[in-house]
Design goal:
Chain lengths: ~450, ~450
C-alpha cells in the first residue's frame, strides 16, 4: 500500500530574496530580480545581465554552524540556507531538539548542479597549456605545461566542492540525514525530477522524511559562455529588466538566474503523528524522455504531454473534463516558460494537447519572467510558487508579456497577478520542467484538507 | 502482484575491452588493463598510469544517420553509447538504433515503456579545446581578459563551437541513448560519484516495480581520463602516485593497510533491466534477478573510518528489501578501490554485517584490473555480479599487496561455485552509499 505524501516545509533562495512569503509578495507585484552581472566583468558578453542572488550570507541562516560549510560552493550554500528554512517550517528542528529525530529515516533527493568553477586559476592553467611554438608555429596544447600550472594554482577543496554530490554531503552533515540519498543532473528538469523521485521513495516507505529540491548557479564566465554560444539567452542588453518575456512574440531567450529551492516531503502518517501541518499534498509525478534530438524539442511536445498526463492520471484528474464546480480540474500550471522561442511555443501546444477544450481556461504563467531561469533549481522554486498559490489563492503573473504571440495564446496571466479567492481559490497545480536533451518532468500538488 | 525485475542484457566498456563478455573473461583470466596513460601526455602529473578503453570507435555504435551527432559527444558519452548498444544487442532487442530501415512496428519493445537511467560524473570541458579558445583572449600582459573573451577585439568565446555546452552536460549520456534507441519512458542521470551506478540500478528497479516502464537502460559510465579529471581525482586523494605499471600487472591492493592508492580507469556498464514478464514473453535470456536495493548517507568523506555507520545502513536496507539474511549471501562485489578513505567504511560495514562469516565469502574485485571508473564503477559491479551468478563462477583476483586478515580478498584463480545471492555495495566521495542484491535465475 502506497503512502500519501505531503509537503510540510519550504525554503528558497532567489534573486528576489530568501523569505518565502516576502518573495511571494514581490512575485505577485511583478518585481524583477534581473540586473547587470556583478560577479565578474561580463561587460562585453552578448548577454551581460542575469538575476543574481544578492546580499547572501549563510550565517544569517545557520548562525555559528555556517563556519563548518565555509568552503562549500555557492550553490551548496544556497541549498543549506533553503534547507534550514524548510526544516524549521516543517517543525523538524523541534523534533531534533526532542531527540526523536531518526536520521536513518531521513533521506535526500536533490537536483543540485555542479559547483562554481575556480575560473581565474582555470584560465591561467589553460593559457599556460597553450604553446605557440608547437605544431610548426600554429600552436598546440601542451598537457605537461597545463598540469604544472594547474597544480600550482588550483586547490583540492575548490575542485572537490564542484562535484555535484557535495551539496548532499553538506546538507547531510548540517541536518543529520542518513537515509537514502541521490543527486540528479537532468539539466533544467533536475529539481522537479528530484521531487518526483523523492515522492516515490516515500510512497514506497523507504524513508519517512526527505529533503527534495535543487540548487544551482551558472552565473560564472563559463556558464554564461555556454548559453551564449547556444544563443539560448536573451541579448536585450539595453533593457535587462524586461528581457525575460515568456510567451511574448518578441521573446529572444531566457535570462540566467541562480538560487535554491528546498521542500520537506513526508509521509502523511509521519507528518500527522508528529503533529505537523501539511502545506499541501503531492498527488502526481510524471517523467518522460522526448527521445527526439539533442538540440530540439519534439515538435508536438510529446514528452511534455506524457509527463503532464501521467501526473494528472496519478492525481485522478481527467484534464479534458471540468470538475464538479464547473472549473477546470487543474487551477494553475507553473510553466517551464523559459522565454525561448521554441520552448514556449511547444509547451503551449503540449498543454493544449493535454487539456483539449479546457486548455484556454487553465491559468498558465511563468515566474521566470521575474526570477530568471534557475536552471537545476528552477523546478523546486516553481513548485514552491504552487504551494504558495494554494496557500494564498493568488496566482503569479507572466511579466513583460505585451505582444501576444498567436502560438502562445493561452491564459498566461499577463503582467498582473490574479486573485482567485472568489472563484474557490487554488486547489490543484501542475509544475512543469523540461531539460536539454528532451527530459520532461511534471509534479502535481493539491490543497491539503485535514 | 509483486513485479519481478531481471537483467536481460548487458554491455560494458573498460580497459578489459568492449562488451560484458570481454570484461568477465578478462577478470577470470586475471588480466590487468592498466598501463601508462596514452590519451594525453601525463608527464606533468604525479600520476601517469590508468585503465584506458582502447580501440573504441564510436561510429561503430551509432546509426549512420546519427553520425553527425558524434561531434557533440564528450568521451563519457561515446563510452555510454557503446555500452548501451552492446547491451541492446546482448538483450536481443530490436530498437530504433538497430537499423536504418526498421519501422516502429518492428521494434521488440514499446518506446514509451522503455526508460533510460545512466549515472554519470561531472564532465570536464576538454582542456585542449579550452586552451585553444582562451589563448585568443589574452590581455597585454598575456593573462586572461574577460573583455576579450566576451568578443572585444577578437573572437574570444566564439572560438568554441556553438554546441560546446551540450558536449558536457551529464544528462547527455542518457539523452543520446534515448534518442539513438528510442526510449521515451522515465530518464534520469544520478551524479553521486562511485555510488551512481548502484543508485541508478535501484531507481530503475523501482520504476519497473511500480509499472512506470517495462524495461530500462540502467547503469553508469564515466571517463575522467583527461587532464582536468586526473587532477580532480588526484586532489581527492584517490590515486597512487606512480609513473609506470609493469605490463599485465596491477598496483591496486584493496583493503591493504599499506595500499599505495587507486588507479584511474574509464568506462562502466549498462544493463537492460526488465520486468520478468516482458522478458519471458520475448524469450529473453536472463542473467540474474534484482531483488534488493538500499541507500543511505554517511559523513562526507567518511570521517569515522571503519566505524562509519551509514555505509552499513545501505547494506542492511538492501538485504531487508530482498528479504534475506546475511547468511544467505554467497558473494560480494564491493568497490574494493584500494583507497583508504573508501576501503575503511566499506570493510567496517561488511565486518559488522557478516561477522566471522565474512572470511568465507568471496569478495570480487574489479578495480585492480580496470581501475576506478568513478561514476562508471557501479555499472561495472552490476555487470560483474550478474555474470558471476549467471555463469556460477567466481572470477580470478589480482592484488598488488596483502589484504587485511579475516577477509577473502587476496590473489586467487577463478573457480566455479554454487551462487544464489550476490551483494553489491558502494560508497562515494560525498558520502552517498548504495547496495544491491542480485539473485541467480535458473
Amino acid at each position: 500500500m502506497s503512502h500519501r505524501i505531503v509537503i510540510t516545509g519550504t525554503g528558497w533562495i532567489t534573486p528576489l530574496g530568501s523569505d518565502v512569503d516576502a518573495v511571494w509578495s514581490k512575485l505577485l507585484a511583478g518585481a524583477s530580480g534581473v540586473g547587470r552581472v556583478t560577479r565578474f566583468d561580463a561587460g562585453t558578453f552578448k548577454t551581460n545581465f542575469a538575476a543574481e542572488v544578492r546580499d547572501f550570507r549563510l550565517a544569517d541562516f545557520l548562525g555559528e554552524r555556517a563556519a563548518a560549510h565555509e568552503q562549500a560552493g555557492l550553490s551548496t550554500k544556497f541549498a543549506l540556507a533553503a534547507a534550514s528554512r524548510a526544516f524549521k517550517e516543517a517543525g523538524l528542528d523541534a523534533l531534533a531538539a526532542s531527540g526523536k529525530f531518526k536520521g536513518r529515516r531521513f533521506g535526500m533527493y536533490l537536483g543540485a548542479g555542479e559547483g562554481t568553477l575556480d575560473f581565474d586559476n582555470y584560465a591561467e592553467a589553460n593559457l599556460a597549456g597553450w604553446n605557440n611554438a608547437l605544431d610548426e608555429g600554429r600552436g598546440a596544447y601542451d598537457p605537461v605545461a597545463w598540469a604544472k600550472k594547474a597544480y600550482e594554482r588550483m586547490t583540492p577543496v575548490r575542485e572537490i566542492e564542484q562535484e555535484p554530490q557535495m551539496t548532499l554531503a553538506h546538507v547531510a552533515t548540517a541536518f543529520g540525514c542518513r537515509g537514502p540519498s541521490s543527486n540528479c543532473m537532468t539539466a533544467c528538469a533536475a529539481s522537479t525530477q528530484a521531487v518526483g523521485e523523492a515522492v516515490e521513495i516515500l510512497r514506497r516507505g523507504d524513508a519517512d522524511v526527505m529533503f527534495a529540491g535543487g540548487a544551482h548557479t551558472m552565473i560564472h564566465p563559463l556558464g554564461m559562455t555556454g548559453f551564449i554560444r547556444l544563443t539560448a539567452m536573451s541579448q536585450r542588453r539595453d533593457d535587462p529588466v524586461h528581457a525575460p518575456r515568456p510567451f511574448d512574440r518578441t521573446r529572444d531567450g531566457f535570462v540566467m538566474g541562480e538560487g535554491a529551492g528546498m521542500v520537506v516531503l513526508e509521509t502523511l502518517d509521519h507528518a500527522l503523528a508528529r503533529g505537523a501541518t501539511p502545506l499541501c499534498e503531492v498527488v502526481g509525478y510524471g517523467s518522460t524522455a522526448d527521445a527526439f534530438r539533442i538540440t530540439d524539442i519534439q515538435p508536438e511536445g510529446r514528452g511534455a504531454q506524457g509527463a503532464m498526463l501521467e501526473a494528472c492520471r496519478q492525481a485522478g484528474i481527467n484534464p479534458r473534463e471540468p470538475g464538479p464546480d464547473g472549473r477546470p480540474q487543474v487551477h494553475y500550471i507553473s510553466a517551464h516558460g523559459t522565454g525561448t522561442k521554441e520552448n514556449d511555443r511547444i509547451e503551449t501546444k503540449a498543454v493544449k494537447g493535454v487539456f483539449g477544450p479546457m486548455a484556454s481556461r487553465v491559468p498558465f504563467s511563468s515566474v521566470k519572467s521575474m526570477l530568471g531561469h534557475l536552471i537545476q533549481a528552477a523546478g523546486a522554486v516553481e513548485l514552491i510558487t504552487c504551494v504558495q498559490a494554494i496557500k494564498t489563492g493568488f496566482l503569479p503573473p507572466t511579466m513583460n508579456l505585451n505582444t501576444p504571440d498567436p502560438e502562445c495564446d493561452l491564459d498566461h496571466i499577463p503582467n498582473q497577478a490574479r486573485d482567485c479567492r472568489a472563484q474557490g481559490g487554488v486547489e490543484v497545480c501542475l509544475s512543469n520542467s523540461f531539460g536539454f536533451g528532451g527530459q520532461n518532468d511534471t509534479v502535481c500538488v493539491r490543497k491539503w484538507r485535514g | 502482484m509483486t513485479v519481478q525485475v531481471v537483467i536481460s542484457g548487458m554491455g560494458s566498456v573498460s580497459a578489459l575491452g568492449i562488451g560484458a563478455e570481454a570484461l568477465f573473461k578478462g577478470l577470470c583470466a586475471g588480466t590487468s588493463g592498466l598501463g601508462r596513460i596514452t590519451r594525453f601526455d601525463p608527464g606533468g602529473f604525479p600520476v601517469q598510469i590508468g585503465g584506458e578503453v582502447r580501440d573504441l570507435n564510436v561510429k561503430d555504435y551509432v546509426p549512420k544517420s546519427y553520425r553527425k551527432s558524434i561531434k557533440v559527444m564528450a568521451r563519457d558519452i561515446e563510452l555510454a553509447v557503446a555500452a548501451a548498444k552492446s547491451a541492446v544487442e546482448d538483450a536481443g532487442l530490436l530498437t530504433r538504433g538497430s537499423g536504418e530501415d526498421l519501422t516502429d512496428d518492428q521494434l521488440t519493445y514499446r518506446p514509451e515503456r522503455m526508460g533510460c537511467n545512466i549515472g554519470a560524473g561531472l564532465i570536464a570541458a576538454e582542456t585542449d579545446e579550452m586552451s585553444a579558445a582562451m589563448t585568443t583572449a589574452r590581455n597585454e600582459s598575456g593573462g586572461f581578459s574577460y573583455r576579450a573573451w566576451g568578443g572585444e577585439g577578437g573572437r574570444g568565446m566564439e572560438a568554441l563551437t556553438p554546441l560546446w555546452l551540450l558536449k558536457y552536460l551529464p544528462n547527455m549520456l542518457a539523452c543520446h541513448v534515448t534518442i539513438i534507441h528510442g526510449a521515451e519512458g522515465p530518464s534520469n542521470t544520478i551524479t553521486c560519484s562511485e555510488a551512481s551506478g548502484l543508485l541508478t540500478l535501484g531507481e530503475s528497479m523501482r520504476i519497473i516495480e511500480r509499472g512506470a516502464a517495462d524495461m530500462c537502460f540502467s547503469g553508469s559510465v564515466e571517463s575522467k581520463l583527461n587532464p582536468m579529471g586526473l587532477l580532480r581525482l588526484d586532489f581527492a586523494d584517490r590515486l597512487a602516485h606512480l609513473t609506470t605499471v609493469p605490463e599485465g600487472q596491477t598496483v591496486v591492493s584493496p583493503y591493504d593497510p599499506n595500499t599505495r592508492g587507486g588507479v584511474l580507469g574509464e568506462g562502466g556498464g549498462i544493463v537492460i533491466l526488465e520486468n520478468a514478464q516482458t522478458a519471458a514473453k520475448r524469450n529473453a535470456k536472463v542473467y540474474a534477478e534484482a531483488v534488493g536495493f538500499g541507500g543511505s548517507h554517511s559523513d562526507a568523506r567518511y570521517s569515522a573510518g571503519e566505524n562509519d555507520e551509514g555505509f552499513g545502513y545501505a547494506i542492511e536496507n538492501a538485504l531487508e528489501d530482498a528479504g534475506i539474511t546475511p547468511e544467505q549471501v554467497d558473494l560480494i562485489v564491493p568497490m574494493a578501490s584500494g583507497v583508504p578513505e573508501l576501503d575503511r567504511p566499506e570493510l567496517g560495514a561488511l565486518r559488522r554485517t557478516f561477522g566471522a562469516r565474512l572470511a568465507s565469502i568471496p569478495l570480487v574485485t574489479i578495480q585492480p584490473n580496470v581501475g576506478n571508473c568513478v561514476a562508471g564503477a557501479g555499472g561495472l559491479q552490476v555487470v560483474v555480479g550478474a555474470m558471476c551468478l549467471h555463469t556460477q563462477t567466481i572470477p580470478a583476483r589480482i592484488h598488488a599487496g596483502r589484504a587485511a586478515s579475516g577477509i577473502d580478498a587476496g590473489p586467487s584463480p577463478s573457480r566455479s561455485a554454487k551462487l544464489e545471492y550476490a551483494l553489491l555495495c558502494s560508497g562515494s566521495l560525498g558520502g552517498q552509499n548504495a547496495a544491491v542484491v542480485l539473485k541467480a535465475r535458473r
